[in-house]
Amino acid sequence: MAATACTAGAGGDTGRAPRAAGMPESGARSEPAAIAIAPAGGSRDVRPDRAVVVTAARGALRRVTVRADGTSAPVEGRLARDHRSWRTRWALRPGTAYTVTAAGSDDSGGRTAATSRFTTLRPSATFRISDVTPRPGEVVGVGMPLIVTFDRAVARRAAVERTLEVRSSRSVTGAWHWISPQQVVFRPRRYWPAHGRVTLVAHTTGVRAAPGVYGTSGNVTAFHIGPARISTVDVRRHRMTVRVDGRAVRGAGISAGKGGRRAYTTTSGVHLTMGKGDPIVMTSQWMGVTDKKDPRYYKLKVRHAVQISSSGEYVHSAPWSVKSQGRENVSHGCVNAPPQFASWYYAGSLRGDVVTVTGTDRALEWTNGWGYWQLPWSRWKAGSALGRPLTTRP
């Protein structure tokens, strides 16, 4: 470590503590450098996920700056409480030259200093975040998951997950869950607090996702949580009730899936609204029926449709079944609603609003759409590569 304190040709000092007044220049005993820096000056092909570590062998550190060539912002790092060491918090950028400057004081109060200049390796393969849901600036419901998708499979999931920082205006406990090698989802233990803000800061630059594969960019995405819009659909009583911030604001008679077969049975469980369209075309193709002569065939243009699963379930306007709404279930699995109510619900709907359906013998699969709330908290957090939940900070 003493040899790493100086950087030949880097323009810094030798890393030795300044000679005290009156100290003889010849015959003095050699002492280790007051400040040691790793990586050593002149190092090349340094792994970007290796931390920069600065250590005060004697005395304490006062200031450490790590900066990439061509940038003005310093690299984020942490100084130990005893001021004896400092280390970078996140990985470095691949294929980049860095300069480290450190200043401190020795045990007698004299000034100490050291510099180091090194270059990180250029990886043979890279990865990046290809998509983040919600969109930047989007206003979403309190059940909204935070979904991060990568452009290639992640083998070192714990290393990548550790770089995904979630901040929120009010602290919540949540956990990441790997849905696949290319996708990880964050969900709070309970719904997001209404009327707040959430930010994802992905420090994926330089992190090693697999042997030889490093991140070349990070991501910052901020979105807002809207009102707590939570709806219940009671299939047996044929009624839908909407609550906003805990207050029941509107309800209507509805008609759900008629049953008789699995495809016609509305799924019970905690659904999230995933999107909406006005109009959308619904066909029987989703269940393999394309022949117009088949009595099961249908093709309808539907207005004010709000999607609540990936298996074709919507809350939508159904003027053709008004007489059945509030009385019996006649749909192919959707929640048929009166036109006026459906229009109102559609207008205020946000992605991530909660729709809890009860009263059927078909449970919503947690992998169906955004059915993530179907998993108990213990199973959800077990899907974290780090094996533990985290608490967001503002």
TrEMBL record:
Pathway: Cell wall biogenesis; peptidoglycan biosynthesis. This is L,D-TPase catalytic domain-containing protein. The lineage of its organism: Bacteria, Bacillati, Actinomycetota, Actinomycetes, Streptosporangiales. The keyword Membrane does not apply. It comes from Actinomadura rubrisoli. Residues 1-31 are annotated as: Disordered. One of its GO terms (biological process) is peptidoglycan-protein cross-linking. GO terms for molecular function: acyltransferase activity; peptidoglycan L,D-transpeptidase activity. The keyword Cell membrane does not apply. InterPro entries: Big_10 (IPR041280), LD-transpeptidase (IPR050979), LD_TPept_cat_dom (IPR005490), Transpep_catalytic_dom (IPR038063).
